[in-house]
Amino acid sequence: MSVLSPTTQKQVEADLIEQGLIDDDQLEAIHAKAEKEAIPLFSLLISDGHISNEDLTRTIAKINNVPYVNLSDAKVDADVLQLLPQEIAERYMAVPLGEMQHRLVVAMLDADNVQAADFLANKIGRPLKVYSA
Fold first, then answer.
1. Does the predicted TM-score (pTM) go above 0.85?
2. Which residues have a Cβ under 8 Å from the Cβ of 78 and sit 6 or more positions away?
Protein backbone atom coordinates (compact mmCIF):
# COMPACT_ATOMS: atom_id res chain seq x y z
CA MET A 1 0.00 0.00 0.00
CA SER A 2 1.28 3.44 -0.75
CA VAL A 3 2.38 5.79 2.01
CA LEU A 4 -0.45 8.04 3.09
CA SER A 5 -0.10 11.79 2.98
CA PRO A 6 -0.33 13.50 6.38
CA THR A 7 -3.76 14.87 5.40
CA THR A 8 -5.05 11.43 4.40
CA GLN A 9 -3.62 9.88 7.58
CA LYS A 10 -5.52 12.44 9.68
CA GLN A 11 -8.71 11.70 7.71
CA VAL A 12 -8.26 7.96 8.29
CA GLU A 13 -7.67 8.54 12.02
CA ALA A 14 -10.80 10.70 12.24
CA ASP A 15 -12.85 8.10 10.36
CA LEU A 16 -11.64 5.28 12.63
CA ILE A 17 -12.81 7.35 15.61
CA GLU A 18 -16.12 8.13 13.88
CA GLN A 19 -16.65 4.40 13.25
CA GLY A 20 -16.11 3.78 16.98
CA LEU A 21 -13.12 1.51 16.35
CA ILE A 22 -10.87 3.67 18.53
CA ASP A 23 -11.35 6.71 20.72
CA ASP A 24 -9.33 9.92 21.10
CA ASP A 25 -7.49 8.68 24.20
CA GLN A 26 -6.47 5.42 22.53
CA LEU A 27 -5.29 7.28 19.45
CA GLU A 28 -3.23 9.69 21.53
CA ALA A 29 -1.61 6.81 23.44
CA ILE A 30 -0.87 4.90 20.23
CA HIS A 31 0.63 8.05 18.65
CA ALA A 32 3.01 8.38 21.62
CA LYS A 33 3.94 4.68 21.52
CA ALA A 34 4.46 4.74 17.74
CA GLU A 35 6.77 7.74 18.01
CA LYS A 36 8.70 6.28 20.97
CA GLU A 37 9.18 2.87 19.32
CA ALA A 38 9.56 4.21 15.74
CA ILE A 39 6.71 1.99 14.51
CA PRO A 40 4.16 3.16 11.93
CA LEU A 41 0.94 4.22 13.66
CA PHE A 42 -1.40 2.00 11.67
CA SER A 43 0.86 -1.05 12.08
CA LEU A 44 0.69 -0.50 15.83
CA LEU A 45 -3.09 -0.07 15.81
CA ILE A 46 -3.37 -3.43 14.04
CA SER A 47 -0.74 -5.32 16.06
CA ASP A 48 -2.20 -4.08 19.35
CA GLY A 49 -5.63 -5.30 18.25
CA HIS A 50 -7.38 -1.93 18.10
CA ILE A 51 -8.34 -2.38 14.44
CA SER A 52 -8.04 -5.12 11.83
CA ASN A 53 -6.14 -4.87 8.58
CA GLU A 54 -9.51 -5.02 6.82
CA ASP A 55 -10.81 -2.09 8.93
CA LEU A 56 -7.82 -0.03 7.82
CA THR A 57 -8.02 -1.04 4.16
CA ARG A 58 -11.76 -0.39 4.03
CA THR A 59 -11.30 3.04 5.67
CA ILE A 60 -8.46 4.07 3.34
CA ALA A 61 -10.55 3.01 0.35
CA LYS A 62 -13.47 5.10 1.65
CA ILE A 63 -11.27 8.17 2.18
CA ASN A 64 -9.78 7.79 -1.32
CA ASN A 65 -13.22 7.23 -2.89
CA VAL A 66 -12.18 3.81 -4.21
CA PRO A 67 -14.60 0.87 -3.94
CA TYR A 68 -13.46 -1.91 -1.58
CA VAL A 69 -13.68 -5.67 -2.07
CA ASN A 70 -12.75 -8.45 0.35
CA LEU A 71 -10.96 -11.00 -1.81
CA SER A 72 -11.76 -13.88 0.52
CA ASP A 73 -15.43 -13.37 -0.44
CA ALA A 74 -14.76 -12.99 -4.17
CA LYS A 75 -15.53 -15.74 -6.67
CA VAL A 76 -13.37 -15.43 -9.76
CA ASP A 77 -14.00 -17.14 -13.09
CA ALA A 78 -10.86 -18.86 -14.45
CA ASP A 79 -11.45 -17.23 -17.86
CA VAL A 80 -11.27 -13.80 -16.25
CA LEU A 81 -7.97 -14.65 -14.55
CA GLN A 82 -6.46 -15.32 -17.98
CA LEU A 83 -7.11 -11.72 -19.04
CA LEU A 84 -4.23 -10.43 -16.89
CA PRO A 85 -0.87 -12.22 -17.18
CA GLN A 86 0.26 -13.67 -13.84
CA GLU A 87 3.63 -11.87 -13.88
CA ILE A 88 1.93 -8.49 -14.26
CA ALA A 89 -0.78 -9.35 -11.73
CA GLU A 90 1.88 -10.25 -9.17
CA ARG A 91 4.02 -7.18 -9.88
CA TYR A 92 1.05 -4.83 -9.42
CA MET A 93 -0.70 -6.96 -6.78
CA ALA A 94 -3.81 -6.99 -8.94
CA VAL A 95 -6.51 -9.65 -9.23
CA PRO A 96 -9.02 -9.63 -12.08
CA LEU A 97 -12.48 -10.28 -10.61
CA GLY A 98 -14.90 -10.09 -13.52
CA GLU A 99 -16.35 -7.88 -16.19
CA MET A 100 -18.75 -4.97 -15.77
CA GLN A 101 -20.03 -2.69 -18.53
CA HIS A 102 -17.21 -3.66 -20.93
CA ARG A 103 -14.61 -3.01 -18.22
CA LEU A 104 -12.38 -5.49 -16.47
CA VAL A 105 -12.95 -5.31 -12.71
CA VAL A 106 -9.60 -5.50 -10.92
CA ALA A 107 -8.85 -5.51 -7.19
CA MET A 108 -5.51 -3.90 -6.34
CA LEU A 109 -3.62 -3.47 -3.12
CA ASP A 110 -2.60 0.03 -4.22
CA ALA A 111 -5.89 1.01 -5.86
CA ASP A 112 -5.12 4.72 -5.86
CA ASN A 113 -2.01 4.19 -8.02
CA VAL A 114 -3.27 5.76 -11.25
CA GLN A 115 -0.08 4.94 -13.17
CA ALA A 116 -0.39 1.23 -12.35
CA ALA A 117 -4.07 1.19 -13.31
CA ASP A 118 -3.29 2.96 -16.61
CA PHE A 119 -0.49 0.49 -17.34
CA LEU A 120 -2.79 -2.47 -16.67
CA ALA A 121 -5.55 -1.00 -18.84
CA ASN A 122 -3.10 -0.45 -21.71
CA LYS A 123 -1.60 -3.92 -21.28
CA ILE A 124 -4.97 -5.68 -21.60
CA GLY A 125 -6.37 -3.19 -24.10
CA ARG A 126 -9.53 -2.25 -22.25
CA PRO A 127 -10.67 0.08 -19.47
CA LEU A 128 -10.63 -1.01 -15.84
CA LYS A 129 -12.90 -0.63 -12.85
CA VAL A 130 -10.49 -0.66 -9.90
CA TYR A 131 -11.35 -1.80 -6.38
CA SER A 132 -9.20 -1.64 -3.27
CA ALA A 133 -8.35 -5.00 -1.74
1. no
2. none
